[in-house]
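Continuing from yesterday's entry. The apo prediction looked reasonable, so today I'm repeating it with 2-acetamido-2-deoxy-beta-D-glucopyranose included to see how the binding region is handled. Same sequence as before; SMILES copied from the compound registry.
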Amino acid sequence: MDKFLALSVLLLQFCFSSSLTIPAATNNILINHAISSSNYDHPRKHDLHRKIKTRRAKLTSFEGVTAEIENVEGTYLVNLVIGTPPVSFLASPTTVTDLIWTQCKPCKHCFNQSTPIYNRSKSSSFSKLPCSHELCKASYIHSCNSDCRYKQKYLGGSSEGVMGTETITFGSHSVPDIAFGCGNSNTFVVSHGSGVLGLGRGPQSLVSQLGIRRFSYCLPYYAESNGRLLLGSEVQHQQNSKTEIQSTPLVLNPSNSSFYYLTLHGITVGETKLQIPKGMFEVRKDGGGGLIINSGEMLTAMEQPAFGLLKDEFKSQLKLPFADKKSSLGYDACFSFEPKSNVEVPKLIYHFDRFADLVLPVENYVFTDSENGVMCLAILEGNEGVSTFGGIHQSNINMMFDLNKGELSFAPVHCKEL
Ligand SMILES: *[C@@H]1O[C@H](CO)[C@@H](O)[C@H](O)[C@H]1NC(C)=O
Ligand SMILES: *[C@@H]1O[C@H](CO)[C@@H](O)[C@H](O)[C@H]1NC(C)=O
Ligand SMILES: *[C@@H]1O[C@H](CO)[C@@H](O)[C@H](O)[C@H]1NC(C)=O
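Holo prediction written out below.
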């Protein structure tokens, strides 16, 4: 190997006894859930924004909340509490949808959850959301007889039920009157959880409802439970001389206004900058395309032709054959190697706007199964019309969203120290 390449390579030392982890490929379904919701998210923006402002004013005394994030077999979950008396609400926190919902009795169709299912008749803090309320009308699919009924579609299924308001408790901090979906027909499954915590930019999201302009999260690795979600204007990066904080603009796409778009100028593998066509990750004039940041799924989904270029570049630098479909557990970029040997993995760098280069640690983009000699990139071939930047890439990086500055800043950190 030439010297140049050697420098650009990270040595991946496989530890044979330790937990190897290629998570099950159910992630494929979850990826879709992210995207398709946007297809149902066409609120009348101007109208909504005006009304939301008045709501915000009520919450000026709000200081901030914290919740732990755990990664349970590939699903990120925050451990919240809903209602009075309180019931556990294990919610998947996601930046690519807005609606907050939990499974709700009586169930027409509920998936298994490990904690008792919330029953609104048992909660003294539940109220129905009036049909005239802007957060009722913000659901792309809603109907109004006496109740505000919603349907939130994802490609992997849907959640359907009645919109209400509830007290949601984050640690010791209870927040009343959060609008949410009380879902009694849920074909979309949140594995190990009971619902979804929407953190998007649309009016129904927790971020919009609280009226906060800043939040941050740190996502844990597979099967770890030390992640953090922090919401509030006081949220800051840890300041110490060693942390390098970088920032890049958060772009708003008026056609899909729930998403946080990033401007990605390029990708480097090892020492090679990929020859990605100009504009590959830009939002097109028709509102499609672009790259959005996703805290709800582990994997990144990269549209073509970027995905193919990336995969081929890894193949040529690794000098390893592609793994066959069976051993690759459904992932799209996997390589075979001599079982129990070491592999040198090229660096992976994302070049975001304003010279924000995200140099990923190898565990943020590669899964390995050294017993069987298979390694896979944590990147799938996207085919939803938009690329998504997934959670594994963001592991152990504090991601801070500042909506006033229109900026995402990030800094490597150990989540458990936050
Ligand atoms: C929900 O709670 C009410 C009031 O306690 C109870 O009558 C009802 O049976 C419960 N529903 C279910 C499906 O458990
Ligand atoms: C749900 O839980 C029940 C009872 O524990 C079990 O019989 C059933 O197989 C589970 N269903 C699924 C889809 O896991
Ligand atoms: C974004 O908006 C455009 C136009 O409204 C639409 O064609 C596209 O499917 C939307 N969704 C995504 C994920 O880009």
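Comparison notes:
- Residues 112 surround 2-acetamido-2-deoxy-beta-D-glucopyranose (ligand 2) (CB under 6 Å).
- The domain at 3-19+244-417 is CATH 2.40.70.10 (Cathepsin D, subunit A; domain 1).
Will overlay with the apo model tomorrow.
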